[in-house]
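Here we describe the complex-level prediction in full. Unlike the single-chain runs in Section 2.1, the four entities below were treated as one system.
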Amino acid sequence: MSQKLFVSAQEVAEKAGVSRSAVSRTFTSGASVSPKTRQKVLDAADALGYHVNHLARGLMRNESGIVCLIVSEIGTPYRSALLRALTQQLQNSGKVAMLINTDRSDGSADLALRQAIRYRADASIILSGLPDKSITDLCLKNGQRLVLINRDDDREGPLKINLDDADAAARIATAFVRAGCSKLAFANSQAGTPSLMAREHGFVAAAKAMGLDVMVERFGHTGYESGRAVAQQLLTRKERPDAVFCATDLLACGFMDAARHQFSMSVPDQICVAGFDDIEQASWSSYGLTTFAQPVDMTAREAVSWLVSETAESENHTVRLHADLVWRTSIRGG
Amino acid sequence: MSQKLFVSAQEVAEKAGVSRSAVSRTFTSGASVSPKTRQKVLDAADALGYHVNHLARGLMRNESGIVCLIVSEIGTPYRSALLRALTQQLQNSGKVAMLINTDRSDGSADLALRQAIRYRADASIILSGLPDKSITDLCLKNGQRLVLINRDDDREGPLKINLDDADAAARIATAFVRAGCSKLAFANSQAGTPSLMAREHGFVAAAKAMGLDVMVERFGHTGYESGRAVAQQLLTRKERPDAVFCATDLLACGFMDAARHQFSMSVPDQICVAGFDDIEQASWSSYGLTTFAQPVDMTAREAVSWLVSETAESENHTVRLHADLVWRTSIRGG
DNA sequence: ATCGCTTTTGCAAGCGTGTGCAAATGCTGC
DNA sequence: GCAGCATTTGCACACGCTTGCAAAAGCGAT
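The structure predicted for the assembly as a whole is:
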């Protein structure tokens, strides 16, 4: 154990022959310090290997620079892409991300937010799980900002970033019909997330408006295996669908693989498939999945720019982003 | 702006009618406090919504509870899977993960480690990039622990977790030969990571030992597109390979897709393919990729258990983990 | 009640930083 | 040289917590 401990501003001050305030001001942007002493301090700091202690700074300023990312299923393509974009943006804004994994228990979003409070995070971004109202209230009351991505609820205070899920669903429904399909199906998971349900309801409603019924199947989590399972259910029916909209790309990939390899169907000749998210795999030539692109970069930018803005707290802020349809080869025509 | 600020131990103490020390001890495990006062404190804390300030605690204890994860290409299947496992394990051990994205610049690993130092992280886990020696020295000197995953270098002090890459490469070489292949190829990226190069050299050496040459191609980053590009190079040769070992699964997926859809080749009949990592997509039925499974859970467990152990600092610690061969359908026979 | 012992409790001194305030310093124009 | 002003500097307090130390309290036995 070297146990040398970290070098403090005090030591730098002594080495540079100035007061401790001077070194503090040198590392505080916008503080008044002469160029001469500034240089002396910087030299001494460099020689000693000094780094401002952000714990202490956060304690004083009552602003830690930490932003909590609360997320489950980190290994999933869409989630990890969003994570990438968010950390990138946060670092651009001088913030640092604290990552909290809520895969395990159900109340884990609450535990996570508690952790965020303990470290006095300036803000939390929630990508999964619906935290308890009492906790979010606590966050907000303590001046912590909150961003909810794709999980709109009726709370007051947090920024909510959503997509035009229902509208997108309607667009794909007409695309299916235009491609000559008439036996529509929707493949969903049992997760029941607001955005997933919005896609389902939007799709069913749009179909109904065109005088068509929709076969809806839901299964398990929002993953590849569930897509296969739903295919099992849909493709063993008396009347097979000729177009299926999957709530996520992972479901779509699973569905396509099952349709092709297990039921020997051709996509898109015998069945058209569409997904949602535009994960990387959707563009792989084995799939060529027509899908809606989640605007991850835009989402991250919106979230972070709101977090760091001086003048947030604007009462009931909601951002609704647009999901572009990326046309590939899993739907006829185009 | 409510600006109510956080509630402090002082306020809890007053409400509970005890001293500030008492409430501090209540939240410090292993401190001496009578059950009666403890209860009074807990009640008061709950009523006021008190949470220990980990910034201040870290300042006092000289131990923040923060572990930095330094990682690039977060959106990648293997990386995100490892990230998931690591955060899980860290939380199990009462630590919290600070995520640092090093996608952009080259010296960004250094910047990241600086950030880790500023927040007085107890440890850093490096999944990407080779930090400068001066920085790692600084980390170690300040009692910060360091874990390097799959990027062995000769530094003294950090824990290094590696795989038996070369051995795995040799195993797959013999598997290819046993499947009747004789025109071997290796598909790599230009990243030149130690583990990637170990796979390449191991494969070439094993082939040479069996009297076979290997066509080696390298291209771009370690992703799907590179796999396609390498396929372009390998499959337009006068003599096509009949077996190719790809340094990662993403490369393998890209290679397979190009081989099948662009060159109309059949896998595994005309060409056998193997990968490395065992990402989720490898098991998708469009690929059925035979590959080596990275022991992500084991890796995470090793890393974290070493970090939290009392007695680390054991001079030159290296862990070499085994990668199991997962046999699927991209190689004949089996 | 007194003693000896263990447990609990409060005091106060830090941890490393930011910042208001007043003193000190530098600069400009006579 | 000096007055007038802007800028820089140091002091000292505060932030919220932990913890060594000594005083206080509990407790059982004499």
